[in-house]
Amino acid sequence: xxxxxxxxxxxxxxxxxxxxxxxxxxxxxxxxxxxxxxxxxxxxxxxxxxxxxxxxxxxxxxxxxxxxxxxxxxxxxxxxxxxxxxxxxxxxxxxxxxxxxxxxxxxxxxxxxxxxxxxxxxxxxxxxxxxxxxxxxxxxxxxxxxxxxxxxxxxxxxxxxxxxxxxxxxxxxxxxxxxxxxxxxxxxxxxxxxxxxxxxxxxxxxxxxxxxxxxxxxxxxxxxxxxxxxxxxxxxxxxxxxxxxxxxxxxxxxxxxxxxxxxxxxxxxxxxxxxxxxxxxxxxxxxxxxxxxxxxxx
Length: 298
Prior knowledge:
298 residues; 0% strand
């Protein structure tokens, strides 16, 4: 029934917002800025839960062959870059600005598709949306009253990985891995790679000296972030299977806008008229992009 589909979308939005707020709380308020350990913990719990759910038959997962896993490794590299750089950026940048920069991953995806896959000329509405998102991302560092170079540098790395991963996921046809199986490979590879990087990056030493390591709030925040990350995966896959990609994009857009409206109520944020205009223009561009994709399907 139609109402059940909307319930799925609302559940996705709630988990999406709470997940980002929890991550932001751990990274910025508690200042646990050790992404190899933070993301390694999240992906480890995600991998364990996904394997358990698959074993119990609660999610559809078949045996992943070695060849399929190896062929998916480029996607897993991009996934690790996405979550690692995303954590670095989110710890230093307010959520509305983070989403504004993340939107420009659509620009990255468009360029890759244009160059690699020789896509035909896009609709003018799509081009306007992409231009607005790029323009906002370029001007935001000049308008942000709390500009921090390292945060924006990590945000650029994040959006590059997000855009490339999105293209790879859509155009990769060499195996029959399902969404859950792709994510399982991502999780396992992430745990392995982040565990190797924990000591060389100094995260392991820093975490052992972290003042709030024995704090009940810290333990609850980290546990909630890992569980919410897995629930977001379940909600995302269910939403994609129940809706078209265009409708999924609309729910994602609504979730981000809701998170941006609510975040100043939860977290301290410095802003001005110019920075807010960048946020608004970027999401107007994303709305135009979504509308153009919907119009092309009619």
